[in-house]
Structures are given as C-alpha cells and as structure tokens.
C-alpha cells in the first residue's frame, strides 16, 4: 500500500473511456481533455474500419474461390480423361489405390490448394501506429476498447513522454501490456523504416502534420487507414497564406467557408504525398471540430488510378467584393476512339471582373474538390456510435457532428453563408427555411454544413443565389447605398429567376424535423487548445487552462519549494493589476 502511494505521489489519475493515465501537474507530458471528441471519433471510425475490412476480405475470398471453381469446370473433358487413364493404370497393376495417407478421404487436389491458399490469406488483426503518443492515452484506449484490434505501437521522441507512456501501460493492466508497446523514436524515421506495415496510422501532432505526411503515406498498408489531425487553423484558414502554401502546397482564402477549405487543403496535401509513391487516397470522413480538423482516408496503390488526381483538385476564385466563389478544375478527361485521355482543365472559368458586382477575384488552392466523406461509411459509423452509446464519453458531441455530416451534400464543395449574402446587400436576413425553400423551388439541392451552423451547401450557381436575394429585397426594401458598393451593383440588375418563397417540404432536414441537436455548446469553460508540454505555466495561460488548473500548478510549485517561480508569477499578477489612487486606497483601508 505504501509503495502504491509513493508511485502515485504528485500524480493525478485521469480516466477516459476504459483507460486510465497518470498525469503529473508539472505539464511535462501533454494532455488535453478537449481531445476526448477526437479520440472518441477515432475509436468509432476504427471499429467500423475493422468491420468493413472483414467484409472486404470475405468478399475477396469468395471471388477468388469462384474463379478457381470456374477454371475447374471449364476443363471437364481433361478431368474425365485423367480419371479413365488412372482407372486403366489401376487395372493393369492389378490393385486398387485408395486416397493418399496425407490427404483425407473425399478431398481433391483442388480443395487442398484452395484451403492452403485460405490459410496463407488468413486475415490478421490490424496493426495500429500512434506516431505521436505523449501520455499514450489514445493508444491505451484503442487497445482496451476496440474489439479485434492487434498490436498498437506508440511512438514519441521525448524521453519523459515515453517513460510516462510506459508507466501508463503498466498502470492499465495485462491487456494493455500485451497489446501496446512504446518506443523512443523519431516518428518520421520509424515510419520510413516500416513501409506498408501498419493497417492504421494515427497522426495527432501539436500544430501542423505536414512534416510527417511523406513518411506516413508510405507506412500504411494497401487499403489501410490514415487518421490525421491539424491544429494550425490560423495558417490553414488564411491568416498566413504564404506559410500555408509552404507547408501544404495550397493558398487559402479568407471566407466563411475557410474551415471546410482547410479540410480540403489537407486532403489535397495528403494526396500529393501519396502520388509520389504511385498511391492515392479515398476520404471516408473529414471533420472540423473545436479548434482543429481531422481527416480519415484510406490509401491504395495504383499507377493507373493515380492519374485521376487532377480531376479531384480545383482552384477557387473568390470575389473580393461580394464573396461569390467559383471552382476551376485542374484537369479533365477526353474520350477519343474509345480511349480515355487526360488533359489540362479549360479556363479561365471567370472573367477578370466579377459578373455580379464588377470587383476583382482572389485565387486560392488547389483544394480537394471531390467528396470529403463516404456517406455509406458515415451511416455505418453513426449506427455503431448509437448502438454503443455508453462506450463513448463524448457521445452527444460526436453523434451530433456525424448526424449533420450524414445530411450534407457530398458532391458540393464549400458553401455560402446566408448572413454574409445579406451583409453584402445590407438587407434583413430571411430565415434559413425560407431561403432553402426558394432554392429547392428553383430546382436545386441544398443542405446544411457541419462546419458552420449558418453555412448552406447548394449546387445552385451564384447567379441563381443572387437572383433569389434580389427577389427577397424587392419584398423587403433596403436603404439607398453608395453606387460603388457591391450590394448596389448587384441590386441594380433585374432578377432573371423569379423566386418562390413558399415553404418546401424538404426545407428542413430529417434531423431538424425531429429536433435533433446538431451544434452543441462546449461542455465547460476554457474548452480548447492547451499549453504545449514542457512550457512554464504562467498567469497569462489562465485563458487556456482556467483558474482551477492554474492554481493547482502554483500549489505544485509551492510544494516543491520553488519560491522564486512563485514570486515571478505573483509579480506578474501585480504588474497586471490596475493601480489604485490614494482616495481608493484610503477607502479600502
């Protein structure tokens, strides 16, 4: 009992799902409670991946067995001749030969070959790599909570983190010890030296994953899963466009759809790295949650399929005046004499000046313009989550996100913001139901976006959207604006489409009709990014950690006798405290 207490001294036991970890209050090893959403979503996807992998393996086995049987049936005459000659040999020898001692009776050479092939092709439990483990919580949850998972390898290049990870593995008992192994290694070198070895690779760095992508796409087995997080949202959303281009090879644009564009930039970057090794990606789920983005893609090897990459990428032209946007495909296909050829995309798709407001365009990209989700996978993941509600600590949040994703239009890149349209025209905003009804009544499709509660994804062209808004303004007049304003130029034209604002049946999604919560508030204050491991925690970090964690850290420093650090923090508090006048000081005394 005394030894256990000594082991836990200075540590806090944190339980998440079925795993428990020991966290020291010195912030030596990184841990963020808010990432429970990330970890729960990853577990849900991995469970579905294991299930789908078994189905695909069984289907491929059946296909190969049928192929073998067809080959056997196509040669009946040869088999008959062989049987006749064998019978003649037996009669000539004057004795009957029974089945071979090595073969069971009633088993032909064919079935022996097929069963042997089945033995060699037996599906192994998926091997998972967590490339940046820190405390090892994610790897431990994978090992303890996912049925049918194989070995989980946890890496980190920080000695303190790996020691903490190994301690946590021991703390979680025999299952964790048998399935999870921790190594002190550079993730990039480790993945390069273990090419196509892992069925699933998890990248969850503090910041950008760009430096890990080249080695990550090589370490994933064919048909395997790459799970990748990016937290450098300021870069991906246009705060530093040149930095984004240097890291991801795409130029971002500042727009209401910037978070979805960030997802598509990351997907385009992963595809670019995969293409260098004759590989390509198939996105199954792409999520923007909290303060980060997370993508789940499968990786395959095919030199011919890789040629389709330019068809999945587009440049984005965004008007600086009215925020209208248009997509220009990087490549196209040409069919000639029953042969398919690849060619550069036709362009430009827009003139020098915006046809709606007359302003110039900014150009961004290239981005991934193909679907970012596989709706069949999304439905399976959502069904799995609902069936095991009690196994997900963040059930409410991830089920809400998956429900919204399941209702998105999969083939429509980016989205428009209703409030942004109204801000351009300086008009009152119609309700989302009224606007959606007008789009549907005009013959187009429309859906919500999981990225933004006010985002609307639609296949209607910008001309039709502005016509709908012109009709709305006719019924809800606006004040006169300066003639050079974008809204004034747009409203100066008569609409070619007469909008019908009568409520359409499909104006509400199924989730909205059932009043299912889709966008939930944060469960507690200070729910977001945390201080990087190893950094000294000061009072300026209160907005990230909250006063309780800050006070706990100060108490820990006091127990260790670091009086100088405490004085530094107290001095910092005093320096930020406003000075009191003499009258106020007298009143207080």
Automatic annotation (TrEMBL):
Question: Which superkingdom?
Answer: Eukaryota
Name the enzyme group at the top EC level: transferase
Q: Which UniProt keywords apply?
A: Methyltransferase, Transferase
Among its keywords, does the record have Methyltransferase? Answer: yes
Write the Enzyme Commission number(s) for this entry: 2.1.1.216
Protein name, as recorded: tRNA methyltransferase Trm1 protein
The species is Dioscorea alata
């Amino acid at each position: 009992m005394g030894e256990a207490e000594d082991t836990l001294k200075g540590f806090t036991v944190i339980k998440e799902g079925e795993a428990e970890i020991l966290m020291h209050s010195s912030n030596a090893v990184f841990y963020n409670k808010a990432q429970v959403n990330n970890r729960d979503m990853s577990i849900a996807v991995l469970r579905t991946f294991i299930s789908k992998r078994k189905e695909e393996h069984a289907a491929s086995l059946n296909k190969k067995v049928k192929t073998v049987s067809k080959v056997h049936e196509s040669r009946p005459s040869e088999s008959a001749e062989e049987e006749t000659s064998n019978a003649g040999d037996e009669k000539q020898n004057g004795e009957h030969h029974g089945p071979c001692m090595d073969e069971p009776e009633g088993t032909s050479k064919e079935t022996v070959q097929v069963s042997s092939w089945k033995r060699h092709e037996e599906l192994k439990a998926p091997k998972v790599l967590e490339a940046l483990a820190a405390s090892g919580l994610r790897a431990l949850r994978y090992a303890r909570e996912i049925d049918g998972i194989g070995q989980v390898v946890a890496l980190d290049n920080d000695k303190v983190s790996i020691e903490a990870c190994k301690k946590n593995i021991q703390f979680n008992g025999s299952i964790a010890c048998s399935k999870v192994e921790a190594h002190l290694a550079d993730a990039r070198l480790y993945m390069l030296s273990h090419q196509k070895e892992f069925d699933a690779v998890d990248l969850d760095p503090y910041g950008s994953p760009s430096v890990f992508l080249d080695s990550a796409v090589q370490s994933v087995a064919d048909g395997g899963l790459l799970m990748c997080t990016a937290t450098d949202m300021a870069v991906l959303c246009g705060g530093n466009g040149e930095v984004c281009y240097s890291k991801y090879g795409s130029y971002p644009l500042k727009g209401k759809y910037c978070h979805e564009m960030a997802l598509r930039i990351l997907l385009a970057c992963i595809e670019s790295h995969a293409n260098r090794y004759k590989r390509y990606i198939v996105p199954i789920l792409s999520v923007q949650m909290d303060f980060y983005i997370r993508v789940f893609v499968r990786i395959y090897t095919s030199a011919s399929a890789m040629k389709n990459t330019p068809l999945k990428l587009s440049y984005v032209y965004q008007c600086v005046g009215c925020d209208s946007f248009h997509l220009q495909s990087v490549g196209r296909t040409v069919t000639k004499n029953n042969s398919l050829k690849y060619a550069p995309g036709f362009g430009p798709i827009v003139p020098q000046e915006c046809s709606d407001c007359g302003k110039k365009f900014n150009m961004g990209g290239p981005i991934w313009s193909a679907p970012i989700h596989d709706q069949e996978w999304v439905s399976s993941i959502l069904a799995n989550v609902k069936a095991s509600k009690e196994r997900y600590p963040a059930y409410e949040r991830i089920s809400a996100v998956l429900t919204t994703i399941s209702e998105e239009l999969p083939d429509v890149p980016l989205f428009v913001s209703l409030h942004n349209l109204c801000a351009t025209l300086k008009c009152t905003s119609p309700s989302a139901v009224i606007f959606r009804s007008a789009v549907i009544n005009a013959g187009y499709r429309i859906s919500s976006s999981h990225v933004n509660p006010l985002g609307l994804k639609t296949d209607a062209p910008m001309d039709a959207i502005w016509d709908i808004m012109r009709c709305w303004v006719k019924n809800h007049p606006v004040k006169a604006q300066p003639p050079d304003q974008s809204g004034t130029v747009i409203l100066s034209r008569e609409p070619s489409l007469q909008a019908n604002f009568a409520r359409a049946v499909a104006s509400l999604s199924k989730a909205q009709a059932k009043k299912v919560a889709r966008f939930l508030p944060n469960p507690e204050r200070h729910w977001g990014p945390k201080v990087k491991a190893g950094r000294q925690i000061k009072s300026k970090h209160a907005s990230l950690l909250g006063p309780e964690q800050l006070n706990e850290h100060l108490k820990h420093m006091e127990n260790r006798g670091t009086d100088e650090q405490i004085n530094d923090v107290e001095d910092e508090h005093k320096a930020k405290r406003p000075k009191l006048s003499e009258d106020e000081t007298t009143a207080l005394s």
